[in-house]
Every structure is written in structure tokens, then in C-alpha cells.
Specification:
49% of the residues lie in helices and 25% in strands. By secondary structure, it is an alpha+beta fold.
């Protein structure tokens, strides 16, 4: 009975540590994408094609042309400030190698995201490490106590 409970606890702790890993990976990808966009992005002018509303507020649909002349659409979600009218110009930034990665210029939320990362990453790392250490402790005391 003890071995079954210990096995369940170890599996649950490994599962929780995996969830922590996925959360860390998502945070890193989000932050690194914003940094990459602001550092390597090319600024361009786009045209407001319309508006959309969703989970995070009102967004603006922007149509823009990349350096090769191809037309792309992007949605600037959670628009801050006054919404541009249809047909008005919006300054955007996009990655030249992948124009589907685009955002409104200037790329906002780098400093708040950096502060958030400075708090969230250590907390998540500590939680993941605690899960793994607890799993190792349970395994050692139940199965390898002799």
C-alpha cells in the first residue's frame, strides 16, 4: 500500500515538474520573441484593415507589405489608446525572415515582461526543483531505505 501511494506521489510530482517546465518554456518563448522582434525587426507602415475584439480586448487588423512586396496581415491584439480608423496608417515591425512575426511599433511590454520574468522564473524554478527533490526523497525513503 505504501509503495503504491509513493509511486502515485512520485508520478504526480514529476507531472507537476513537467507543467512547471512547460510554463517556463512558454514564458521564455514569449519574452525572447518580443526581444527578437524589437532587435532584428524591420519597421514598415501598414494600413488598418479593420478591428477585432477578443479575449484580451480590441485589436487592430493591419495589412502591410514586406521588403519583397508580399502582402501580409497581422492582428495587433489588446490595442492601447485610440483605435485607428479604417484605412489609416499604422507603424509596425516584422522579422524579415518571417514576416508572419509582426507587432506594432514600438514593441511594448519589454520592461514589464522583464520584471515579470525576474519574478516568475525564479518562483517556477524553485517549484520545479522542489517537486523533483520531493520525488527523489520519496523514492529514497520508500524504495531505497535499506
Amino acid at each position: 500500500m505504501v509503495h503504491a501511494l509513493a509511486c502515485g506521489a512520485v508520478v504526480a510530482l514529476f507531472g507537476l515538474s513537467y507543467v512547471v517546465y512547460v510554463a517556463l518554456r512558454a514564458l521564455w518563448d514569449l519574452f525572447a520573441g518580443k526581444v527578437r522582434l524589437s532587435a532584428r525587426g524591420v519597421r514598415a507602415r501598414g494600413t488598418c484593415a479593420g478591428h477585432t475584439s477578443g479575449r484580451y480586448g480590441t485589436g487592430v487588423v493591419v495589412t502591410f507589405a514586406d521588403l519583397s512586396g508580399m502582402t501580409h496581415h497581422m492582428v495587433a491584439s489588446a490595442w492601447e489608446g485610440v483605435l485607428p480608423e479604417r484605412g489609416s496608417e499604422v507603424e509596425i515591425v516584422y522579422l524579415p525572415r518571417n514576416p508572419k512575426v509582426a507587432g506594432v511599433w514600438p514593441v511594448r511590454a519589454l520592461v514589464p515582461n522583464a520584471l515579470y520574468m525576474a519574478v516568475a522564473v525564479p518562483v517556477l524554478l524553485a517549484a520545479g526543483t522542489a517537486c523533483l527533490l520531493a520525488a527523489a526523497w520519496i523514492a529514497r525513503t520508500v524504495w531505497f531505505s535499506g
